[in-house]
Structure formats: C-alpha cells, structure tokens
C-alpha cells in the first residue's frame, strides 16, 4: 500500500482546522485510485489546504461549498492572494485539485451548491439543444458548437431580459454574423448557418422570423469547387515515422492506422470499445458516429495487428472498456480527440511536413480506394456518407482517370 502523503506543517494545519478535515483521507484515496504520482497528490493536497484556509476565513459551511464557491475562490481570492507561504497559487493546478474535491464531497453525501441555471437564456438553450437532438438528430459536438454561438447571440441581444425576437432587427443580425472586427468568409458562413438554424427553431414555435432569416449574410460558395488535400505515396512515410521510440508509440500507431486504413474520424477513434471488435470475423463495429447509426467495417490485418500490439504491450490495466485510454492520471478514462490530433501532428513533424489537418488521412483513404477502382457507392459506404454527393468530390483528385476522359481544348492542335 502506498505511504501516506506528508504535508508541510502549515498546509496540514489549514486542513486540520477546516470543515474539510473529515474528507482529507477520502481525497487522498481518491487520488491514489486514479494512480496520480505521489508528487501530484502532495501538490493537490496543498491546493485543497489553500482552499480550506480560504473557506475558514470566509466562514463557509460545508453545505455552502460548490461550484460557486470554487469560482469565487479562483476569480476573487486568487488574483489578490496574500496567504503566507508555502501556498499553491497556480490556477490550473488549483482548478484540477478542486474538481476532484467536489467529486469526493459529492460521493461522501454532501449536497453541493451549484449556480442557478434557470435564467431565460439557459432555459432557451436547453430547449434548443433538446430540439436539435430529438427532432433533427444532430451529434453532440454539433449541438455544443451551435449552443455556444446561439448563447453568445442571446447574451448580446437580451442579457438578463426576456427573450423576444420581435426586438431584434435585420441590422443586428448582420452585425452579429459579420463580427465587429470582420471575420473570414468561412467563419461568416458557419455562424450564418447556426443563426439560421436557431431562427428555424423559433419559427417552429410560432415566431415570425422570415425577415431576420433573409438578413443573414450569404457567402459565395460553389459546391465541389475545392479539392480535398490528400496524401499520395506519403502514407508509407508517415507510418514509418512511428518506428521511432517515443512515449505511447503503440497507441499512436494504432490510432493512425485506424485513420488511414478505416477512414475514421478522430471522434470515432476515441469511442471505439473493446467489444466493438470481432476478432473471429475480422470486423469492427462503429457506434455513435456522426451519422447516428451503427456500422460494421472489415478490419484490415495491419490495423488489427496494430490494435492487438497496443492492447497486449502498452495499454495500462484499467476497467474502462474503451480501446484507447489515458496513459497518465487520471487513469480509467478514455482519451479525447486532442490525443488523436497530437499523435498525427507529431507524425507529421517527424516526417518534416507542415501539414496540420487530421482529416487529410480520411481524404487520403477515399482517394486511394478510388485510384484502386472502387465504385463510388462502395467508397460512400466505407466513409459512412449518407449521400453519394458527399463522396463525389474525391472523383476530382483521380487525375489519371480524369485525363483519360478529358476533351481537347477548342482550337488546340489535334
């Protein structure tokens, strides 16, 4: 069993003289279960001691602790902190430590106090989010992005006042979409789509918003005009860059093989579960994808071998059923899409490339299938596109076949 963490006299006295004293041992056990290093445990306990001292000075009761108290400690006390050393003052460190504290208190039966979420804007965003999920079937990430933009729109136009679109005019719609400092055309187009989506939601509630929808700035866009960036023979060079030794190498290699061989999105890689792989049949099941349906794909032998090597040789012991999990504390949690992106970008750098996009690997997989003679319907099925039009753009990068059907330019020599 791990030895108890020894604190300096002052932080220990702050904890022992505070309302958090009964939960100190539980907090330490919580960090040990998540396999934090002893130095991290000591730092987090010192952070809790700082918070405990502030609670004592402010006269907080245990029932009054919650997210509001944490926000007040970080935003009001920390910038002007004059507590005597040794004391922890790093905001990100304190925020992480206090997040664990709230988990421990809640598990211990303390009813935490959270900021009220019954404002008009919060209620409106909840209704909008529910409609996008239940009626339009939008994915979680899409709904979060749209709620964030719509939330900014509502705050700018209404603040704490009741929401009434009758008070919004066309000029304010244009001003919000275009931005005060001016935005790039792609950003203007994206925000315009989101505001139009929200106005459509309000029109279903009986609001007359046709004039506001017409005021949304339109950005010129020619469908299928651009070419997707793809890798050609460089995929081999990228994969060979994972032969070098670096931390979590097998995990990074297995994730990149999923992107290159299966054309998965980053969000789909992190959602893969151990039960999704049928080793006997050589298939992998995708659940909770952008299309909101379950799909089964053949598992290439190279991809399966990369995943198996990671599971047997590098994956830490954990009860989590996700294939790709964290290698640092807190353990027992799946990775996020940031881990996938970091693995890909690191591979680009080892190859000496300046690319920054992860979706390039998905485009490259589609382009490779097309060059191999795969029908467009088969490519659309593998990429899980709902429409063939979405996959049609990859026909434009098949320059060999395009050259074969190209007509002579008028007036050129025959």
- Number of discrete helical segments: 19
- The share of residues in helices is 40-55%
Total DSSP E strands: 3
The oligomeric status of these chains comes to single chain
Global morphology: globular
Taking all Cα atoms into account, the compactness measure Rg is 27 Å
**Tell me about the biggest sheet?**
3 strands, antiparallel
Strand order of the largest sheet: 1-2-3
Instruction: Report low-confidence residues grouped into runs of 5 or more.
Output: none
Q: Element order, helices and strands?
A: HHHHHHHHHHHHHEEEHHHHHH
What proportion strand? Answer: under 5%
What distance lies between the first and last C-alpha atoms, to the nearest angstrom?
A: 85 Å
Average the pLDDT over all residues and give the rounded result: 84
The structure class reads mainly alpha
Structural account:
The protein is mostly helical. The chain is built from 19 helices and three strands. It has helices spanning 9-16, 24-33, 38-58, 67-77, 91-107, 120-134, 140-158, 170-178, 185-204, 210-214, 234-240, 249-262, 266-270, 301-313, 337-350, 360-371, 376-383, 388-392, 399-405; strands at 277-278, 283-286, 295-298. It has a three-stranded antiparallel sheet, with no helix packed on it. A hairpin with a 4-residue loop joins strand 1 (277-278) and strand 2. The longest helix is centred in the N-terminal third of the chain and has 21 residues, at 38-58. The mean pLDDT is 84.
